[in-house]
Structures are given as structure tokens and as C-alpha cells.
Write a structure and sequence with these properties.
The protein has helices at 3-14, 29-35, 41-49, 54-57, 80-83, 85-99, 113-122, 139-150, 158-178, 194-206, 230-235, 269-273, 293-298, 321-330, 338-350, 371-386, and strands at 63-68, 102-107, 129-132, 155-157, 186-190, 210-215, 218-219, 257-260, 280-283, 303-305. Helix 6 packs across helix 14, helix 7 runs parallel beside helix 8 (139-150) and helix 9 packs across helix 15 (338-350). 41% of the residues lie in helices and 11% in strands.
């Protein structure tokens, strides 16, 4: 039985991956009088008097809504909200398993950005945070930014920032091995959508300055600014600062780092051979990378990472999002800002001691028991320091 048949059987036998469990007694009339009517009126009135009391008297402070319209499901494309439900249940499962967070999927029967924003805002009073998932670019960027500005709970689009956080963590450790600073490395990024744009911004914030970004039409350059959407126009603040105009193939000349979040098979061995010694290649297109791990190594790449679990240096969002949400919820954060994301990257990188670093071990395993709590504490401290908080820590 292949993996797809096994997966179908698992989902069918269990009727999905989630259930609800109760935390208080519910065996007799006395139990009901406390947990339900008439006793429940007491916490209701406390929340009516102060909304922050919802974090004290309900499970709101440990809940995350995983919201998707199914317009960009990994490896499947635009399959719609209903068909994306197994993916969102899986995300909720991981939140519970790794962070103890009660997450629940809300898949939407609309792909209208304004309607999605309206729905998210309307449920704010009952949840602790929102994880946007599998929403197509550039809509996902617009939706997330609007919600961050217009809501008072953390909103996080994992496809953008989770990938960027883990990529940067792996790069922080890789730089130690190649003994170069971020500012002196020439970086090629393939893909300027949700993940690519966030990776670029985080790399720039960390100190990378020689970044060249490519989409299917070629290098991003100021001369083409008029034909770009708003997202690509923004990226010109971070990429191609010396206004080069070379092809994707030629860009590999004397490059130190390649990061791919684009399409399978677009990078050849010959291109990798043009890179500097001790080159770093993170080819993360799914389900098949820009160049395979074996081909990149054969061509001389020193450090190679992919999104695959069957190869070293797996760049896995699971390293980031459970701890990020746990930290944000514990801080009673109103947003997860750039400083919190950077803190998460540095925390993930810190879990591999320098003595343990090697070309096949630049990023910790997602199953390392230290990951979630280490990220949680780093994000919590960053949120409190930035004062993006409410309740006992803030307003």
C-alpha cells in the first residue's frame, strides 16, 4: 500500500485528525450549574466589563484559528477551501502536538480578499490569534497586512514568514561554517512571491546587502519598476542595489548563496559550479526542488538544504510556527513584528552548538524537544520588549 492509500485509510478510519475535549466536570446538575447556567453568567459579566478577562476566564488565550481559502495549497494549487480542510486539520494537529495550542481550522468558501478580511475581523473577540494558510500571492500579503493593522490579536501567515524564519536560521549557522559575514555574500533568490519576498526582507534585516531576486521574467531591476506589482516594487528597496542586469544563469558567477522558492529543475549543475567555493544552496521548491540535493552536492555545493525530510538540512516551518504562536499567546501579544521573527530565527540557530555544526547539520530537527520552548521564550521576550502586548504585560 503506497503512502497515499495509507493516508486515505488513516483519515477515513479516524474521521479526520481532530476532536474537542472538555476540561471541567459535566456529570450532574451541580456541574452544569457551575460550567453552564446559571453560574456561567459570572464570567460573562466579567468579560463584559473588561475584554481582557476573556483571557482569564476562557480558553481564548490558548486558541488559534487556522484560516484558508484553499487558493494556494502546497503541491495542489487552487483547490478551494473545502478541499483544503485536511491540510488545515494537519496544521492544527501540529500546533497541539508541539505547542499545546488548541488550534482549529476555518476553511472559507470565498476567495474575495475583502470578505476574508471581514470574516477574520468578525471572529477576533473569541480567539487568541490567526494563522493564515495557503492563500495565494500577492493577496496573502495584502490580507495579512490589513489584518495586522486592523486587529488587536497576532496574525501570522506561515507560508511567508515561517519559511523565512527557518531559512535565516539555517543561513546564520551556515555563515559560521564558511567564515563569511552576511554583508560580503552574494545571494541569488529565485521566487518573489509570499515566501521569497519575506525571505529577502529578513535577510536584508539581518545584514545581507548583495541580494539579487529573480522571478519567471528575470531579474528584478529598477528599470522595470512600472510593470511590477506593489510587492515587487517594495523588494527593490532590498535587492539589486547596484542595479545589475544579468540573466539567471549568469547570476551564479561568484555567488555564495542560492535560495530557491520557485520551480523544479531550473538550476543545473553547471550553474552551481559557477558559484564560489563553500557555496550554500537552499533549493526548496515543493514537491520537487530547483536542483536535487544529490546534483547540487555533485556539482560542488558545500551546504545543501531542501524542504525534504529524507535529506540533511530540512528547512521545515514546523521549527517556527508552534513556538512563535506559543510565545505570542503567552505574552498576550497584539502582533508578531519583525523583531519577534528575528528573535525566532536566532533562537532556532542557537540550538546547534558550534562544535556540532557541519555541512549536513546547519538546522536543528523539528522533533528536537528544545525547539518549541526556545522559540517561545525568544518570541515572548521580543513581544514584551516591543510593547505589542495587552493584559498583564500591557494595555
Amino acid at each position: 500500500m503506497d503512502i497515499y492509500k495509507k493516508a486515505l485509510k488513516l483519515h477515513e478510519e479516524n474521521k479526520g485528525k481532530l476532536e474537542i475535549k472538555i476540561k471541567v466536570p459535566c456529570e450532574n446538575k451541580d456541574d452544569l450549574s457551575l460550567a453552564y447556567t446559571p453560574g456561567v453568567a459570572a464570567p460573562c459579566l466579567e468579560i463584559y466589563n473588561d475584554e481582557n478577562n476573556s483571557y482569564k476566564y476562557t480558553n481564548r488565550g490558548n486558541t488559534v484559528a487556522i484560516i484558508s481559502d484553499g487558493s494556494a495549497v502546497l503541491g495542489l494549487g487552487n483547490i478551494g477551501g473545502g478541499a483544503s480542510l485536511p491540510v488545515m486539520e494537519g496544521k492544527a494537529m501540529l500546533m497541539k502536538k508541539f505547542a499545546g495550542i488548541d488550534a482549529f481550522p476555518l476553511v472559507l468558501n470565498t476567495q474575495d480578499s475583502e470578505e476574508i478580511i471581514k470574516i477574520c475581523k468578525s471572529i477576533e473577540c473569541g480567539i487568541g490569534g490567526i494563522n493564515l494558510e495557503d492563500i495565494s500571492a500577492p493577496r496573502c500579503v495584502e490580507i495579512e497586512r490589513r489584518l495586522i493593522n486592523e486587529m488587536n490579536i497576532p496574525v501570522f501567515h506561515d507560508d511567508q514568514h515561517g519559511t523565512a524564519i527557518v531559512v535565516l536560521a539555517a543561513l546564520i549557522n551556515s555563515l559560521k561554517l564558511i567564515e563569511k559575514s552576511a554583508s560580503e555574500c552574494k545571494v541569488i533568490v529565485s521566487g518573489t512571491g509570499a515566501a521569497g519576498s519575506s525571505i529577502i526582507r529578513m535577510m536584508y534585516k539581518y545584514g545581507f546587502r548583495k541580494i539579487y531576486a529573480f522571478d519567471k521574467d528575470g531579474i528584478l531591476t529598477k528599470k522595470d519598476i512600472e510593470i511590477y506589482d506593489d510587492l515587487k516594487k517594495e523588494l527593490l528597496e532590498y535587492v539589486n542595489l547596484d542595479d545589475k542586469n544579468f540573466s539567471f544563469e549568469l547570476s551564479f558567477e561568484n555567488a555564495d548563496i542560492f535560495v530557491g522558492v520557485s520551480a523544479k529543475g531550473i538550476v543545473s549543475k553547471e550553474m552551481i559550479k559557477k558559484m564560489n567555493e563553500k557555496s550554500i544552496v537552499f533549493a526548496m521548491a515543493n514537491p520537487e526542488p530547483e536542483i536535487s540535493y544529490d546534483d547540487a552536492k555533485d556539482a560542488g555545493a558545500y551546504i545543501v538544504g531542501t524542504g525534504r525530510s529524507d535529506r540533511p538540512n530540512q528547512v521545515n516551518n514546523l521549527l517556527a510556527f508552534p513556538g512563535i504562536f506559543k510565545g505570542a499567546l503567552e505574552a498576550k501579544a497584539t502582533k508578531i513584528d519583525d523583531d519577534a521573527k528575528m528573535a525566532a530565527s536566532v533562537a532556532i540557530a542557537s540550538l546547534i552548538d558550534y562544535s556540532q555544526l557541519n555541512e549536513e547539520n546547519v538546522i536543528v530537527s523539528a522533533f528536537d524537544d528544545r525547539v518549541c520552548n526556545t522559540v517561545c521564550e525568544a518570541v515572548k521576550k521580543a513581544c514584551i520588549k516591543s510593547k505589542n502586548i495587552r493584559g498583564i504585560y500591557g494595555k
